[in-house]
């Protein structure tokens, strides 16, 4: 009597299942990375367009920080345009407030790198109306430059700022926008890797945020004026980290 031979179980069944699971995890990770990369580029492009609008507003309003902030926020509303019409501004502000409450960091900040207080010390004049902040004249720049040369300023550059009158009439802004990733996995990865980040990016990484850092220059179309600072727009230095020195953020 013949007996059917027992068929041994596949030796590699467990290995195949493990390989399938690992492949699935890698595919999921690649998909998340692709989506996050696209999202980061889209938000970076939107932030750059908003920074252009902010610079235009500043160039035509004597560099007034409030005008810069309003123009930037208005341009960024496209991120929250979906949903009930007319509520984009409210949704945007709520999102920024929630992020700041959760992380302790503002969602964004614009620094006026140029002209700064030292430029006004070099090139500023009293307000013609005897009211309002000191200003730098935007007209007759060639004549002003010749006057600085006659004063013995090398290259027409002021002794405090190192800027000539043309540079003092150039608005230079720096934006730091802290973007919350779509995936909590990426946020966790950023927090775990914060020690590897550059000093200026480290505070954002510690909170699971991706910092977008942009700079833009635009010729002034009005007399630059020295204004009081705001929490969201203030005078800064090209060497600092959005109000945090590298040492403080280490």
From TrEMBL:
The chain crosses the membrane at residues 20-40. This is Periplasmic protein. Keywords: Membrane, Transmembrane, Transmembrane helix. The keyword Transmembrane applies.
